[in-house]
Amino acid sequence: MANALSLADSGTALPFKVADLTLAEAGRHQIRLAENEMPGLMALRAEFGESKPLAGARIAGSLHMTVQTAVLIETLVALGAQVRWASCNIFSTQDEAAAAIAVGPHGSVDAPAGVPVFAWKGETLEDYWWCTQQIFDWTAEAAASGADWIGPNLILDDGGDATLLVHSGRDFELAGAVPADAAGDSHEYRVILAALRASLATSHDRWTRIAAGIIGVTEETTTGVHRLYELARDGKLLFPAINVNDSVTKSKFDNKYGIRHSLPDGLNRATDVLIGGKVVFVAGYGDVGKGAAEALRGQGARVIVSEIDPINALQAAMDGFQVARIESVVEQVDIFITGTGNLNVITTEHLLRMKHLAIVANVGHFDNEIDMAGLEDLAGAEKIEIKPQVHEWRLPTGRSVLVLSEGRLMNLGNATGHPSFVMSNSFTNQVLAQIELYCYPEKYPVGVYVLPKHLDEKVARLHLDALGVELTELTPEQAAYIGVSVDGPYKVDHYRY
Amino acid sequence: MANALSLADSGTALPFKVADLTLAEAGRHQIRLAENEMPGLMALRAEFGESKPLAGARIAGSLHMTVQTAVLIETLVALGAQVRWASCNIFSTQDEAAAAIAVGPHGSVDAPAGVPVFAWKGETLEDYWWCTQQIFDWTAEAAASGADWIGPNLILDDGGDATLLVHSGRDFELAGAVPADAAGDSHEYRVILAALRASLATSHDRWTRIAAGIIGVTEETTTGVHRLYELARDGKLLFPAINVNDSVTKSKFDNKYGIRHSLPDGLNRATDVLIGGKVVFVAGYGDVGKGAAEALRGQGARVIVSEIDPINALQAAMDGFQVARIESVVEQVDIFITGTGNLNVITTEHLLRMKHLAIVANVGHFDNEIDMAGLEDLAGAEKIEIKPQVHEWRLPTGRSVLVLSEGRLMNLGNATGHPSFVMSNSFTNQVLAQIELYCYPEKYPVGVYVLPKHLDEKVARLHLDALGVELTELTPEQAAYIGVSVDGPYKVDHYRY
Amino acid sequence: MANALSLADSGTALPFKVADLTLAEAGRHQIRLAENEMPGLMALRAEFGESKPLAGARIAGSLHMTVQTAVLIETLVALGAQVRWASCNIFSTQDEAAAAIAVGPHGSVDAPAGVPVFAWKGETLEDYWWCTQQIFDWTAEAAASGADWIGPNLILDDGGDATLLVHSGRDFELAGAVPADAAGDSHEYRVILAALRASLATSHDRWTRIAAGIIGVTEETTTGVHRLYELARDGKLLFPAINVNDSVTKSKFDNKYGIRHSLPDGLNRATDVLIGGKVVFVAGYGDVGKGAAEALRGQGARVIVSEIDPINALQAAMDGFQVARIESVVEQVDIFITGTGNLNVITTEHLLRMKHLAIVANVGHFDNEIDMAGLEDLAGAEKIEIKPQVHEWRLPTGRSVLVLSEGRLMNLGNATGHPSFVMSNSFTNQVLAQIELYCYPEKYPVGVYVLPKHLDEKVARLHLDALGVELTELTPEQAAYIGVSVDGPYKVDHYRY
Amino acid sequence: MANALSLADSGTALPFKVADLTLAEAGRHQIRLAENEMPGLMALRAEFGESKPLAGARIAGSLHMTVQTAVLIETLVALGAQVRWASCNIFSTQDEAAAAIAVGPHGSVDAPAGVPVFAWKGETLEDYWWCTQQIFDWTAEAAASGADWIGPNLILDDGGDATLLVHSGRDFELAGAVPADAAGDSHEYRVILAALRASLATSHDRWTRIAAGIIGVTEETTTGVHRLYELARDGKLLFPAINVNDSVTKSKFDNKYGIRHSLPDGLNRATDVLIGGKVVFVAGYGDVGKGAAEALRGQGARVIVSEIDPINALQAAMDGFQVARIESVVEQVDIFITGTGNLNVITTEHLLRMKHLAIVANVGHFDNEIDMAGLEDLAGAEKIEIKPQVHEWRLPTGRSVLVLSEGRLMNLGNATGHPSFVMSNSFTNQVLAQIELYCYPEKYPVGVYVLPKHLDEKVARLHLDALGVELTELTPEQAAYIGVSVDGPYKVDHYRY
């Protein structure tokens, strides 16, 4: 595969591809600091480091290759797993983290001894899908173990791309052919088809064999979970899935408190524009929008929210925000944030009506919340790079807009994503879910599951000491009065927190 | 029945018992203003006032007899129902509202023509259970319609007392006897037993007949719902129940935004003490605790939260609150608020360690969150009334504490409860639930149900215009992309808002 | 003097006039509780109760006759002063506090032994100016001391009415006549002229003699201070004045934190309307407006601010508020609050454009912030009393507005004013200012002064323990580094806090 | 002069010294974006670009050479001034801004045609004072104009270094000698003495002549202003000074809203640590501390404040913060922020008691708020660079602390300082102050002045449109009522905002 970047290809027994191995020391410093902020993962190492419940597990991981993910990867390894890793976004890799993971805690730049990782900041789409394929290629591990062939037996997914690849690859193998490109196909879909076409040319059952070996997948995004429920509904899901996204300690923490942190961080690093006093439009008042609105108000912005769900709209109003359609206010807004999970929330018509140098940024999973395709096709629009991931688009109106991270997740593209403590919650759920699938497969026939509430509570419990939280304990009398065990779980399943 | 108050017993065809009929005009003014703040109920009157879906319904209502409840009652009547009403708390009746409901919009003090209502502020427990019995006695209505006997066919409940009475009454009738008082029985339970003993002396099947006639009950409190689920689990539930409490537009609105309003209101009316700068302890960080903590911070207090659930505890910490056990901080706290749904959250040991003139108040449903029984039994403690519902307890330590509303719901006892707009959400759910049970009984076999999500969204939708909220509409393309109808419902059932 | 109210005229040696002496016990309870919340005043009693620096002082007090003022009055007495008191607003008296002050801590209803107080809730303007005159009539005290004639030697003022009366009375005596009513005179001004005309008919030098005996005045409102600076500028000021309003611990505490507490309190008691989700317009972003906006946001309102000063307007924007002219938003607003110190901020034109049942309330000193005179003259407008101090005005448009406290200070008229802790700050400044004038007259030639910074800091210091504040102490090295004494004062005079 | 960096010395007629001229294009992009955020400066260009009130002014500027300062410099040029520039901090230069200023809007890298600028990120102290001298050397300008000798006639200062150099240089010339180094002299003071010794060796009256030519200085920091008041008090001030720091639109905006933005920005860029849920200690509750506390609470931290001034301490308590001495809470705190203006606020004793990996950061002007000297001398302490401006100090206790920017201003060292909009307020004051001194010298005899209030209001006014603020206008009647002009100024001088 041709690659314009100068990457540190593995010249050793360890296969990997990262931007620059010499960043490993800097990455290791940050990993060490992050461990201090990830008490949940460190507690799992303490609890399970001896018993190694994941011994024998072979995990194909597709998740932003950041410093926090490095702590996750090394936790999985500490629990006995073998791991291969790719990022799930072309911009989100932190190259020093990837380097440190390749080198490993006991290796060196000259003798990397870490985990096979395939990720760098600024991949092309072709790079991206090449990397994603690498996490399924366990040739080296097979060789090392003397096996004829082995594949992964677990997927750890973020956004569902790894799961998609397995399902689509198998489908095309069963069909005997990859479909030709169709008129409406996105560029990315064409890249996927090309990759699978190349795969099919080499092997007629590669993905079929891989799919057969997978015990299950754990998935942590709204988007990826949505895909899983659709597969299950349509009877196409090939293996059990644990929906980590809907653990309370994930969706109500990562989505809300993570964005509260990383949204202003991304805005600041990208633009250095004062948030105070500005009018900011937040599309969507789900957990992401709630975190965004709180953060922006906390910086002195005036926040206007848009919503399509009357319940969330009413919540926004009760929280003191103006709730309006974008068309009613677009000319007054200084900064636009999308976090809806939907497409074309900001259209080219909206872009053309905005103030000069309005900032447009997305914190939803996909870049189609802003009609970037429409913008790229807009006659007379000109794109000027102010700095990486910050572009001024000069519009035919004579005004410009500033688009961050080309419409992709700006908190990852312009900042460093969600901070370690938040990710420790999400990733502790991931690890517990991997253990559930691997150790108790009988509990999980093919289908989509959430983690049982006592594990969700356990994740929270592991993060209290670090914040100095004193938990009150029920007396037996009190526990009996409300009909729960002293040790929990404490709430009915439909409780909303 | 002996009654120390001078009540306006009905001297007319209309049976009722309220404190003072001449308050009706003042009550009517407030009802008129409240209607402007209850757009959900008024919209139901507009939608269903003609078709009268509740024609034939006979509703026994047990719910705080406030101005807002008056609008609910008159909405039920506008939809065709016959109604009898009692309050569900001895202190929560607003006497002018009760008077206005008895007089009715078209009656007069001399010729009351409203709804049979049995409620006044400051009932004894004996009064209270007498009143509750009245809502099941439809003798007058039977007489008016020429029927031999009729009973209610629906219960609208808050806390479950009306439902309890029917179930217990029938149980004792089936057993042929009411149990004797036992050593550990509370005073209130003895009052109930006495009432049912008197009933059984008069009729051996009164409650059995009533129970047989009930189509269902709608219940709006956490506490009442908890009882219903227990009855259903034990196979003892006699008729279907709709759990209105767990509509999002109830639990996430009434519990949170209602308390946010009424807690500081109650504190202010009771004590006039500056909240700003004070240390306030909030026991429980559920929806009630979240609303309380937000309100108190908004007034400049420093809030310390206690929790037994690690997830809620972590939420409190992430929202910036200190989380501590009461024992660790009791000496520093100026104001204590309980809203846990549990008992003995504040014990006499805690009371004895508090600062001089610390304020102790409860916003949970029952008065046992504070150990009032223990306080009353405490040797050397003296109770001084500062004003109604505000008592200084001089403790043997030489210090005093101020207890509001004798440990009962202080937002009702010291203020006027949740404001109209919030109650409009809750009560619109109640009316929709009554319609569901009455018009579509086939959908509801015996069991406990929540309202379907589209009705929950409808409740929210009916409240948007009044707040000037502009709701964004999905395009068909967007709706298809996320797999929902343009008109909703928009979320999966486990979505937490 | 004819008085429609049934007042408890003194039938004893103690002259006073209050609504109902039997309220004294209730008032005493509240005074006792308030003392716990007024650590500054109690500390002054401890510091100066022995030395009695105000022995010989005869204080004419004109200040809202509330529970807090009762603690102030009894502090002045404890420091040796003789006191006579009237309220400075026709609605602001708390009748139980007035009764308790008349009865005194050691008197009884049958044998009142407190302070001569002339105040009741709901005075007419004629009553009001009669009461104000009584604080200057020391006939009874003269008789008791065997003196021929004595007058007060200090004024403690709020709003400047007592000071105005002395200056105007003396002016007219020097002129030999009170002017005739002129066409544009307000009703209140005519009442004042009538009172002074009656005085002049009795004595040609009453006010001249009183003025000559006054050592000085302490004044605590923006409005009253403004009058004093004008008098001083025009050379008409008759005695020195201490501007207590501009102590930091007054203007930045009472005005801001007091309103933050009492504004929502007044709204709640008057209307029970949910503040959350509502659009509230706050006219003026001075200290009062800042406190109002913070409180309303803390309750979940969306606040729109208006300002005439570009600096304050920019502050409002930087604090995240929309800043708009009333004309631009009047139709969207649910609640209007004025706190500008200016007149006609809300005109009849604005009133006619408001939403149905919009709430209109003033927290500025005078009732002309809202054009109440214009409203009263408006053809077709009808006034309906919902309850005392809450009026629905039906307008010719068919819509209504709710006006609180007839446009006067709603936090006093609809609630109980600022809470004790805030007032303790203001009143500790008042007492220190009275001591300054009385004990150190040589420091204060005729003119207007603020208290020296070390006294301002002392006021703050006396309030820290009650809030559990630990103050950090400068090391000598640190004090030298920033060029201050270890004990303060710590800031340059122009420091803005 | 020896210089380890590879700097772009001017090889052209334009004298300058910057890090890398090829950064000019990137700098120009950012300047262009900053202009959109600096409406005050752009409005001055519009108002005065024609009349050029600064024609003939020769300004020696010493102020952080950032993108925002670039807009300031080009505004001064647009108003007719000639300018030479140095940075006032060895770390604060943004090299791309310096390059763009050297190149100028119409020049190119090959033919720089901008302003003589002498600044780069990471100067040594020797570099720094060499640069500062260059802004007083107008040889090139003299040559261009054919003059024999010219010097600057205005100083624009930040921190007072430029003013110090002129005063000290002249003193030593008058004394005929520069003092020898003394035992207690800091390294920096020795560098200054060496520079002036070299100057005196070349010319006996260089600084005397420069001082004589200076019309005045404008100064914008608390620290620099403090020095000026001391010089004036001691009769040593050589020319008039305008204290820009105490304009409301500077101290209440830059200090408060600037920190609110740049403090979390600096924390995030330095550490990526989640702020939410953490315990943060903020030393000092002046404008800087208020901005810090608000920002941190807005991110979900629990903030503990320390104060030495009882008034500010009481404000902190009333704003809902715990107020404690550092000794009482040091073990619980995750992040320490100093912003007091004092020294040794955090001592080595405190550092040794902190949690492992506690973060220590300063936003006060000097690095001695944290006892960095003591830390460097601490036996057994080891310093590890995590990344530039982020150091882990391993302490003899076995725990580490993270120190940001070596104890210097972390918002400049770890982030990019205050954002453009805030700086536009500060710098508009600077430009107006330069105009005042240059155009109206008769108004300013030697002394220290603040800008008149109408100019302060003008600065605010110029920033309203950009935020969509609608300012309300007084009617003539209203203006008369409060005794001001319709156009302002609106407040008395001691008003605190």
UniProtKB/TrEMBL annotation, chains A, B, C, D:
InterPro entries: Adenosylhomocyst_ase-like_sf, Adenosylhomocysteinase-like, Ado_hCys_hydrolase_NAD-bd, NAD(P)-bd_dom_sf, S-Ado-L-homoCys_hydrolase_CS. Residues 255-417 form the S-adenosyl-L-homocysteine hydrolase NAD binding domain. This is Adenosylhomocysteinase. It catalyses: S-adenosyl-L-homocysteine + H2O = L-homocysteine + adenosine. Its cofactor is NAD(+). GO terms for biological process: L-homocysteine biosynthetic process; one-carbon metabolic process; S-adenosylmethionine cycle. Keywords: Cytoplasm, Hydrolase, NAD, One-carbon metabolism. Gene3D superfamilies: Adenosylhomocysteinase-like (3.40.50.1480), NAD(P)-binding Rossmann-like Domain (3.40.50.720). It is an enzyme of class 3 (hydrolase).
